[in-house]
Amino acid sequence: MDEFKFIDSITQDYYRQGSVVKGIGDDAAIMRHPYHDIVTAVDTMVDGIHFSKDTVPPFYVGYRTLAANLSDMAAMGGLPTAYMISLVVPKDYSNDELKEIYQGMDTLARDYHIDLIGGDTVIGDQLVVTVTIFGTVEKNRARLRSHAKPGDVVFVTGTLGDSRLGLALLLNEETLSEDQAYFIGRHQQPTPRIHFARELSSLKRVALNDVSDGISSEAAEIAKASHVTLILDDDMIPIHERLEELDEDKVTDYKYNGGEDFELIGTVPIKDFPYVLEAAKKHQIKLSKIGTVIDDEKTNAHVLLSKQGTLKPLKKSGYTHKN
Amino acid sequence: MDEFKFIDSITQDYYRQGSVVKGIGDDAAIMRHPYHDIVTAVDTMVDGIHFSKDTVPPFYVGYRTLAANLSDMAAMGGLPTAYMISLVVPKDYSNDELKEIYQGMDTLARDYHIDLIGGDTVIGDQLVVTVTIFGTVEKNRARLRSHAKPGDVVFVTGTLGDSRLGLALLLNEETLSEDQAYFIGRHQQPTPRIHFARELSSLKRVALNDVSDGISSEAAEIAKASHVTLILDDDMIPIHERLEELDEDKVTDYKYNGGEDFELIGTVPIKDFPYVLEAAKKHQIKLSKIGTVIDDEKTNAHVLLSKQGTLKPLKKSGYTHKN
């Protein structure tokens, strides 16, 4: 068993509490309360795995960890309200560095009007930052991965692979003549798509997943949870024009398997797609149709990629975090 | 600044969300919702700091971490409903060991009828277990540390120092002719006092704190938050008879500074104390009056200890986790 999937493997057969609407297996958990549902998720980042001092200074360690949690909240269509942090801190870590981590979080927390309501700090060998996020969502409006249906449009926000290229630049694996700062910014300060996702709250059915591991992986999660097949069109996958300067293999890898863009991939009934386009326009973000949903009865695949006239299963190679 | 207190130091001046009833600074955070309040807390345990393979096998690592969180819930008077776990797992950790951690949690989760609703697993150098607990409490019935008033009775559940003695036995620092298993059990499988604390829910005002760092520390936290002084009577502090066999200095250290008993220390108006005694009897736990609350105007101390005819400030030496 892959240890990364350990949590998914221990899904309970039934829930003891009637209030649990969704437990393990989506971007966040949902608990029913009067008037609205509670959304909550936890995300952990480890020094040397998810970031290192060379590529992500303390301020951005805080910023990115909270951004990753807010991205889970966006992927559930939730409105964030509060967060808690747990820090494992090595002895040689200074108080100034700790404060910078907090300031990175607080900068983002101010933007979304959310509060730090609790936490724990302990000593350890390696910096570990764990954030628990809380929010609310209107009853039956949580955007589950299982909501896709044949006939839906598949869409994605922003451009893909930008964060991965930013990391490559930080690691000196790549150089660019222009736009270096843009890509590094996309790696260090990703933007959770909360406002856009909230704009969709009037729509009855939307499936959403955030792009933390690359769309090959996220699209497969939607397909699996919804028992459908997603057909993606290679020509329609949005990438930044600067990415096109790279080797073709790298472009393919970055756009399908580049993690931590924290964009949203989703599906909606075709009649609602114009509304989704309008919502993106209102919040000044790029939105692209990248495919369609079909019945999975005969495909025997979660995701099929249409490229240069052929239709092949899209390998879910996922994203291995590199520091 | 003590890094352990980092979280406490970053308390926000005001809360952006009107729903935050209590943020950082108590056993858990409280958020207002229609009909009831939401209680939530996060607790992290690190291999080599809070436990080690020698003293706490994986099953009990899970059990204790969830127990510590449930103890925070008890100290707020809350009814637990769900939890999330985040694991940082070293590469040499086996899946069987991971499963044992989970089974330790699930054993306790079954007892309290709560659900695992989410989590995250990542690779790292050192085992880190973080649990986030959720629950509910009736409006304005959260048992804050700030609720003590002059004239209150100070009480504590169970006997103190048992977990510390259990640890000493595991580390071969002590030997006992009898009851070894009892003390080791109190260290590895502490009992959160949820049922007892819930039994008090009809009382209007109770201050509660759980004994994670020793009562010298917990009593001081209540005194500080409530702007009062707690006078404790050395003769009335409950200890197991076997503890009396140890050196006097050790007895003093264990009972005041021995951490992780996960008992509850609290204060109530004197008129309500008989009800508290009855509640303890109903749940078959020992309950002792250990002191009284007085005005702090002239004492210039948080906690005063009455011992052999003298009244001296009780030093808060706290508990340093030993593995």
Automatic annotation (TrEMBL), chains A, B:
Top-level EC class, please? transferase
Do you know which Pfam families this protein is assigned to? AIRS, AIRS_C
Q: Which residues form the PurM-like N-terminal domain?
A: 25-137
InterPro entries associated with the record: PurM-like_C_dom, PurM-like_C_sf, PurM-like_N, PurM-like_N_sf, ThiL-like
Tell me, what is an example of a GO biological process annotation in this record? thiamine diphosphate biosynthetic process
Binding residues for Mg(2+) 5, per the UniProt record? D213
Q: What is its EC number?
A: 2.7.4.16
Keywords from the named record: ATP-binding, Kinase, Magnesium, Metal-binding, Nucleotide-binding, Thiamine biosynthesis, Transferase
Q: Which reaction does it catalyse?
A: thiamine phosphate + ATP = thiamine diphosphate + ADP
Q: Which residues are Mg(2+) 3-binding? A: D27, D72, D210
Q: Where does Mg(2+) 1 bind?
A: D43, D120
Q: Which CDD domains does its entry note?
A: ThiL
Give yes or no: UniProt keyword Acetylation: no
* Metabolic or biological pathway, per its Swiss-Prot or TrEMBL entry: Cofactor biosynthesis; thiamine diphosphate biosynthesis; thiamine diphosphate from thiamine phosphate: step 1/1
Give the binding site residues for ATP: Y102, G119, D120, R145, S212
Q: Which residues bind Mg(2+) 4?
A: D27, D72
Residues the record lists as binding substrate: H50, E260, Y319
Q: Which GO terms describe its molecular function?
A: ATP binding; magnesium ion binding; thiamine-phosphate kinase activity
What else does UniProt say about it? Reaction mechanism of ThiL seems to utilize a direct, inline transfer of the gamma-phosphate of ATP to TMP rather than a phosphorylated enzyme intermediate.
PANTHER family recorded: THIAMINE-MONOPHOSPHATE KINASE (PTHR30270)
This one is known as Thiamine-monophosphate kinase
What organism does the UniProt record list as the source? Halolactibacillus alkaliphilus
